[in-house]
Fold each of these.
Amino acid sequence: MIDSVLLIAFGGPSAPHEIRPFLEIVARGRRIPPERLEEVAHHYELMPGGCSPINALTRAQATALENRLRSEDAALPVFVGQRNWHPFLHETLAEMAARVHRRTLGIILSPLRTEASWDRYMTDVAAAREKTPGAPEVVFAPAWGDHPLFVEAVADRVAAALQEVPEEDRRWTPMVFTAHSVPVAMAERSPYVSDFEQAAHAVIEALEHPRFTLAYQSRSGSPSEPWLEPDVNDVVRSVAADGEKHAVIVPLGFVCDHVEILYDLDVEARGIAEQHGMALHRARAVNDHPEFIAMLAHLVGDAR
């Protein structure tokens, strides 16, 4: 029986002076060109307060889940542990050990499974447990990217974005679903692409919308290595070249409105759309949407 919940997240800098140390951690062991890291650092600097909102959004998810469990008479403490910034996984596990938690449900906050978005989290949890005396056992929730409640939350976010489109254009406005690009070789060893396709189709079925396409964003690796395509910016150019006046972009592969959405989509992709005379409407990530929180609670219920 579990006695707690651990939300396992990516993490992000909470102040301008943390940006480059954070990016050094993210890039450790990866062939990311220094100029790309400096470019990304600038993206963070452009955010309000010069930091990422991901930590606050993840804490909001944890608080909402705790409240939801309490309302269902299934109260459990919910902790946040992060791979790349405070609270690091080992810091959170040490806190849990101090509070005498023995068995926790780990929920990886990524709807799509590949080495970068799933396996490394599990490996890092194991490493954090090894160096934390008394760390609780961590049992992992199963994949949830096609869970009906997650699909419902995404569909609701998309429906809200569609309301920004003039009613006469809404039915045939193209949707562009996005996920983080990863190396092709990595994707071929995982269900990442099929997870993405399955989740997008489920959202489309829920909305009964006839037009959509898939794209990848935020590539960060070596230019010589093939990564998943098409790139979202190329898709935006193509859709605009077809004469579309509106498009809705849906960051399906992300659960928080963090910098890779707020800059890569809201600034870069939207700027390209505007250059080509097209309005780009962006669906919010699920963040603490009630149905997403209900889904997390459902995962907890299944593990009790």
Note: The first strand starts at residue 4 and ends at 9.
Amino acid sequence: MKSALICLMFCLVCASAPAAEKVALIKINGAIGPATASYIARSIDEARTQNAQCLVIQLNTPGGLLDSTQTIVQDFLGSTVPVVVYVSPTGATATSAGCFITLAANVAAMAPATTIGAAHPVMLGGIPSGQEQKPDDTMKQKLENFSVSYIETIAAKRHRNVDWAKSAVRESASITAEKALELRVIDLIAVDMPELVKRLNGRVVDGKALNTATAEVSEIKMSASERVFQQLWRPEVMFILMLIAIYGIIGEMTTPGAILPGVVGAIALILALYLAAILPVNVTGVVLIALAMMLFIFDIYAPTHGVLTMGGIISFLIGSLMLFNRADPLFRLSLSYIIPATLITAAFFVFVIGKGLRAQRLPVKAGAETMVGKKMTASTPIDSQGGRVFVEGENWNAVSDTPVEPGEVIEIAEVQGLTLKVQPRKG
């Protein structure tokens, strides 16, 4: 009886004890894109569902797309869960888009020996909506002015150093964590996650003090689809998909009924178009690659001793170089992809497609059509009413506009079903 009473009291104490507080954590390592924006939005919702004290975003990024950055900033400003951006680990950077994201957080923190800045719009992946990456001077100025006003609004909203924020855009200014703390760009420096959680305890965010002293850190992982799309939206992936689409569709056109090349090519084309709508693609590069395909095909049907093929190779190479802005390391398509792709594409058209199409134009070597032009001796008189000839081991009905005598040498002029139209041999 006594032991049962003790157990009951223990259960009541456990039930009345407050549940441990939670701190939600996600890790962003790489370029900022649509998958990143989706991941962050989902994590904010999940942190709210878990009633977490805050959501910590451990950030290390070289930059990303302006559209995705704007989406993330809007999610931060509209979040009911305090958002903490922590530039970590040591050596990490919050460059370009990462600078906007860090400044937009409720609490901005950095690890020692990390950097923030260089937020010029060119480093934000150019102009949104897939336009060309080399705008004219007027467009560049408009984009820069927009970025300056945008980062100024964010910094003012979070009571951070507005002057430095504007210089990060205009002058691509970049500073260390220690200097960022001194200039009031960030709120604190923490060596690691435990220290960050400890230093967040008691900090007031939107009128509420954070209780993280004994909080349990719970990481929210990327979903499978988010991981896939995070890997997909890369220049080299779009380039490879574009090549697969070209090979597949043209392969289906040259071998009708194969089905598989067409299906694979169509799927690759849809994915490539999806990425083209996300990535800042140069339209001129796309046009040059399309021109190269046309030149390859023209040279197959109308051989010009390789002149059009050589033009196609040059057009494909230049188009591939111009497809993305090589001055931007975030969207640079490596020569290790461009040169092999150029050589393989040229070989594909010259040897594979070319030989296939030329084989289709060779003379027929089987069937009744091969009998045309053959010579033999008439077995019976042949006229317009009919007669008989013996050819290839069989007796055939034959007709001739010019009467033919038995034993006369004739040749087949035409095959009309089961009847041969013949004529006296010429010469």
Note: Residues 12-17, 125-134 have pLDDT under 50 and may be disordered.
Amino acid sequence: MGLLRGRGRDGGTRYRMREKVFAIGDDFWIENDAGERAFKVDGKALRIRDTLVIEDGSGAELLTIQEKKLHVRDTMEIERGGRTVATVKKALITPLRDRFSIEVEDGEDMEAKGNVVEHEYKIERGGDRVAEVSKRWFRVRDTYGIEVASGQEDPLILAVTVCIDQMTRV
């Protein structure tokens, strides 16, 4: 499955990100498959908690990602307007592959599973594919694609992907 121009298999949208090139305090753009800057990840430095902000192309703040300290397992919260909309947690036991649970406040929870370190995984809701992440779509090193299924909230799915990328940093 290649990252083709235009829409994904089901009419969803495809994006590209660089692997682990940003950190708290750094800014980074998520591009659509045409290479246009679609969303900005703004790393807010000098805060008590690690914070990343997802902005649209014009700079409007869409979502805030906060790392939660003092938890048994890695946890990050995604907020909109100061209200938590989703919580991403790394699974305690991952016998055969990596797994993350995504608790959505006003919707059905999701799960990410696969090899998240190699950026080959699926995000599912109730067994249905919500998004797929893959490095195989690109020949460019340290780049991976995110295909978000049609009818999904793209900024939220991209924020979940950013959380997973942050939690798998070595």
Note: The chain has a mean pLDDT of 82.
Amino acid sequence: MANIKSQIKRNKQNEKRRLRNRTMRGAARTAVKTAQKAMTTGEETQASLLSAIRTLDKAAEKGVIHPKNAARRKSRLMKAAQKAASAPAPVADEKKKKAPAKKAAPKAKAEKK
């Protein structure tokens, strides 16, 4: 424990900030996971995506995470959303296994005369 009065105060401030930042970081992570889960299930994708982006922006604005970190996470979310929107939904009944490809028999070399 610190003996200097200013350092004692600094430690108290750091602890308060750590707890506040922890909740913001946790909220951002939860929002991102919720958005990713919504993409896989197809439920309210747009709303959850906007909520995740808003949460990441707030965390970056307050200095909880680095702005480039927030931008990278948002980019990944948007890329996944585009991929999920363009891909057709898988149907369980139509899943077919492909037969393994057969190797062609090697051609015999023509004999020289």
Note: The chain has a mean pLDDT of 86.
